[in-house]
# Entry
Amino acid sequence: MHRARCRIVRQAPVGARWLDLYEGDRIFNVLLGEQALYSNHGGSEAVRAQLDRLIAVLALPRLNLGIVPRSAPLAIWFGHRFVMFDDKLVKVESCSAEISVKQPRESELYRKEFDLHRHSAVDGQAARDLILTAIDHFDRLGRRNRG
# Structure
């Protein structure tokens, strides 16, 4: 499954979140499954551009990106995608709805899930290498489709 995990330390208005990667004091802790790097939505050129962007934002001081390698042992199943805001609100995404979780006891379960997956993730140069490998895959795919 292609799941992304994101834990946002301080709450931001939905439209302004991307700005916080460049300004302010919010910290974004993001986990991706390696499989998500290979999800071909929009064709190899579009995915290649998205992966290039991911490489560029790795250097941002407010972003902590971890990638769970596809062969990494997992303590628990990668469930639904979710976003945490200040440990006070969790938004869980399913195929039919977005669920807001506000009960501290339930929010804690999502924090624990995030932490378990973070232990399986790689970051820094290892994450960069996984992204570069995916870029190489889409470069080869694009060349093969063109010629």
Remarks:
- Helices lie at 44-57, 104-120, 124-146.
